[in-house]
Structure formats: structure tokens, C-alpha cells
Amino acid sequence: MAPGARQNKAMRAFLCLVLLTAVSCQSSPLQEGDAQFQMGHYAEALALYQQMPVGQRDEARIQRTRYFVLEDGVRQLLNLDRPQDAARVLAFIEADAPVDRQAELERLRQRIQLQTAQDYYVQGYELSEANHPLAATERLRLALSWNPNHAQAKELLAQSENWLSTRQRVGEDYYFQGMEHLRAHHDLRARTAFMHAADLLGEDSLAATRLDALTLSLAEESRNLGRLYLEAGLTGPAWVALLDSLHLDPQNAETLELAKGIEAQVRSAELLTEIDVAVRGGATQAADQLLEKAQGYGVAQHVQRLRELAAANQNQKNQGRYVRARAYELDGQMVHAQALYQAILDEGSGLGWEDVEIRLQAIGERLQQAEEAYQQALAAEQDGNAEAYRRFLTAVMHLAVDYKDVRSRFQALAGGQE
Length: 418
What we know:
This protein is mainly alpha-helical and 418 residues long. It has 18 helices and no strands.
């Protein structure tokens, strides 16, 4: 046979061998699923079993694989340090567990117990380090209920119980000291003793009840003392007494109201000083604003003083008005002078300004004469009598230089001459 023919025949034989090998190597989902199951890939195995046609499925194999998936889930939860979740899954599957898995289930139960005990021990240790011995003992007892042989939990529980015993004894000593102070009528000392006792014995102890009752009693006593000081006009001591009461009973409505009243008195007193300074300095507008603010506090003891300061401020304003009015009067600006004198009377300042009415009367008569001369000037202007117009305007200027538009008329007349 020629060399080329022999090579072709060998190639065809090799290809047939490869094809037969490939066909023989193909496996069913059942075989692949068994292989995954043997490697511990239970979820993958279950998926392969369920891919098979309904009539060819092995329900027993599927059921057993489902169980192994859940059992493996228990192990995974334990690896994640979630023993309580693992215990719930174990309780769910153990009723349907195959007979040959009972030993494994028992091993998982032991792991759950050991991990649960360790978790409770860690919680107890952290509570002990945070100085919560009572809560720590509860967790440590739970740890030992899951693992009676947990040496660290036993040791720490003994230490915590010893500390609680000492704490109980010291708390009781403080309690009895408080009772002795009460019998001696030393209420503040008694409260301090009960406070220490309650801290050691707990909020539900008799010491805590005694502490609450004594605290309210002392708060009422300080409140009554503060009220007496207020009635006597002693604001400083009253403030101190009410602060003591609020320290003991911060939410008492009566004490808060009394303290609010004292604060108003203090703020009002500060404003009285500021108003006095403003009035003396002639800052009448600022004084008005401060007076309004002080009156808003409504302190009865300051009403008379506020009236005096208001009168003094008004007098200061009128003094300024009077000085300006006299200046206007001397300058012949009778309209401006009249407005300022009238403002003094309108605000009812009263005493000390008796000549204002006299001056207003004189100015009024003078302005009446100015009005008459002004009307005559207008009539002369309308008649074209320039000489008479000038004469009457001059008369108005002598009477009141700021009367109506006489000043601009006079300036226009002067400009026309130029």
C-alpha cells in the first residue's frame, strides 16, 4: 500500500476512536448530580436531579438531597457564628432526618450549644467590663446553662456574684445611714446617703423610693423659702432658693413660674439702669425703646419707677423741643416754633412748661396777622400792584419768615429786581 493511503486509513481510525470516546463519556444529569453530591455540592446536585424529566426523577434521591442542603445550611450558619439561627434550622429538619444522620445531628447540637454558650459569655464579659454586674451575671448563667463546663464563665460569674454581694452590703449600709440622718432631721445628709444606696441597690429598691420622696420634700421646702424671700423683696436669696428647688425637681410648674418671675425682675432691673443712663444722656429715642421693653416684663415693683423714668424722658424730649422752638422763634420761624410748642402740650407733659401756652397764644396771634398780610399780598399781586405786593410780603416776612411760600415769593421778587 502506498504511504499516502496508509496515512489516510490511520487518520480515519483515529477520528472514529475519538468519536466513540466522546459518546461514551457523556453522562446523564443523574450521574452528574451524584458526582456533585459526592463532592458535597448539595444545592448543585439537587438542581441537576430536578432537571430530569418528571417520569425519570428519583424522588427519594431528591428528598434526601434536600435534607442535605438544609443540614449543610446549619453548618454554614455555625461557621458564620449564628448559633441561634442554626438551632432553628436544626429543629426544622431533625424530625425528617434520615436514620444514618442522627450522629451528625448530635454533633451539630453540641456545636450549637458551645457556640451559644460562648456568645453569652462574651456578652457577660462586656457587661462586666462596662460595670453592669447584675446584667453580666444573667448572661453568664445563660452561658453555663448551655455549657456547664465553660471555665471562663464560671470564674467570671463567681467574681460578679461576689461583687454584687459586696455591692448589696454597702448599699444597705448607706440605706441605714440615711435612716439615721432622717431621725436626726439631717435631711440633706439623708438624701445623699439614700442616693448612694439607690445607685447600689437599684431603681426598684426601697432606698430609691425614700430618695424620691425626700427629694420632692426638699424641693418643696426650697420653693416655699424662695416664695417667702420674694414676698420680702429679697430677689437674690429667692433666686438661690428656687434654683435649689429646680435642681431637685426640675419639672415643677410652680417653681418654674416663680423662677420666671424672678428672671423678669432681674431683667427689668437691668433695664431700669439702662433707661436712667439713656435719659441722663439725652438719648430719648433709645430710652423710649427700653421703656417699652421693660414694661413688657410687667414687674409690679417697677411700675412707679418706670413712670418716673418715662416722665423724665418726656421732660428731656420737651426740653430739647423747647430749646429748638425758642431758637425758631428768635429766628422768626414762627410756624416751626408753633409746631414744637404744640407737641409739648399734646404729649401732656404738664408741669414746668407753663409759658408754652402763653407763647403759643402770642405766636398764634402773630400768624393770624401773617395770614392777613399774605392774603393782601396775593390780592395786590392779582391787581398788578407791585408796590403793595412787596409791602405786604415784607410784612409777612417780619411776622413769620417760614409762613407758607412767602420766602420763595420774596426771593423771586428780589431776583426780578436784579
